[in-house]
Amino acid sequence: MPAQPTHLPVLLSGRRRALLRCAVAAALAALAALLPGSVTASAEPAPESGLVAPSTYHVKPPGGRKRPERDKRLHIRYTRGESEGVGEKTGRLTMDVSGAKETLRLKQFGSGCSSTGGVRVVCKVGASYNSWADWAGALPYAAPGSKAGDRGELRMRYEAPDGHVSTATTTVVVGGPILEVRSPETVTGVRPGAETVLDLAVRNSGETTADGVALMIGGVSELTLTQRFSNCRYTGDDDAPQTAYCTFPDLRLRPGQTVVFSPGLRLRTHETLDHGSLYQTAWPLDVGPYHDVLVPDGGTAGDGPPLRPQVRSGGSGQWSDEREAWAEVRTDNPADYAAIGAHVRAAPGGEQEVRVGARADGPGDPGQGGAYNLVFTVPRGAEVVKEPMEELDEDVHEPTCRRRGAVYTCPLRVHEPGTEETLPFTLKFGENAGDGSVRLTKRKDDEPPADPDTTDHTAAVTVDLDVKYASTTASGHGLAWSVTGGLAAVVVGGGGLLLWRRRQQR
């Protein structure tokens, strides 16, 4: 393992995506999944002092379909002044559905709570309260015998240590609309710079009618929306908006119905990049966007005709109840990659830096992160004394490549046509060192268009050993001393000549 890092920027190993979640929130979501009633909530009000809860909350009917993961949330908060965190349990939270006991029940969770008949739960909580962080509270679910469309009130009361009381009420609805969007995971065969149309379709697979529909197309990357609809609001660059937010307040979508939005979404692909992406999401207007779905502020209304909803079957791709349904548009614009090997001249026992990598010859561009890994087989009889390193933090590094014996697999980020990337390895050569090789392999999480010429995906690393190459080893000492000695001789000789001339002039 090398002791010193090379001076290389951090390499990105493909298109990494990560989603970090609070452990307590995950545990609460897991609990909600086990309850007889699963949930979805309306858009939450802006945080304010006092007890705050969503205005509407949906639970599944007894024996009904489990709600999608995106909907499992019921956020109840209490703040007063500058109080933060759980702190000592000096507050008292009461949750009560006794006025709707034919429709609703409560399931308590966490510690410090007591339940009365499954309709009233009292918990000892801190001076401030957050149901996503404090492991104490209750979740409503549908009572046996209730049916889709039934509703009741969840009444909440928080009593502070000094006697201050704050209340909130949430309307809990049994069943609810579940809107799914239909989207292909990939669209292929589109020419570079050409236009293509993406179908827009939404269906209600829930138990009750959706009162108005919102549709948002977001995350538009390396694609251009070429048509602006008058009932949509666009945000991002004027020439290339990244989000379109469209609302249909008069649309009533009953359970089982599908709506197709005409004429669809017209997109133009990039001239060089071999892919672009976007997502779709839809929700009932009276429920509001899902947790972590942000509707951009502002924006500009489109200047074209309206996007027209038509209740009928249609669309293409797979139905999705995920928070966001992503689609990738791939153009028929492959990138030709070539491996870069090396010819090494070294002395037996000497060290030398060897650079290996790849070149992108275009015409396509697979985008940031590249699409290939470099597989470097170390020359026989050679030892790696220094390898490429990534800087994770100040003075914290890790190897760029994965090692298995004499084989190193390294991510390459080269992607722009006409550019190349090489990685430095410092090798120490034995008395009988042989040749090595370089090979390019596609990353498993990337599927770029097929390279039109894969014959150049391998390259040799040849080694020429001879003692006469001792002065060209990585240390460079022989050459450095000869140059330094020559310069010193010139300086000393010049100084002696100047001193001799001065003495002759006296």
TrEMBL record:
<feature type="region of interest" description="Disordered">
    <location>
        <begin position="434"/>
        <end position="458"/>
    </location>
</feature>
<dbReference type="InterPro" id="IPR006311">
    <property type="entry name" value="TAT_signal"/>
</dbReference>
<keyword id="KW-0732">Signal</keyword>
<keyword id="KW-1133">Transmembrane helix</keyword>
<keyword id="KW-0812">Transmembrane</keyword>
<feature type="signal peptide">
    <location>
        <begin position="1"/>
        <end position="41"/>
    </location>
</feature>
<keyword id="KW-0472">Membrane</keyword>
<feature type="transmembrane region" description="Helical">
    <location>
        <begin position="479"/>
        <end position="500"/>
    </location>
</feature>
<feature type="region of interest" description="Disordered">
    <location>
        <begin position="298"/>
        <end position="319"/>
    </location>
</feature>
<protein>
    <submittedName>
        <fullName>Uncharacterized protein</fullName>
    </submittedName>
</protein>
<feature type="region of interest" description="Disordered">
    <location>
        <begin position="43"/>
        <end position="72"/>
    </location>
</feature>
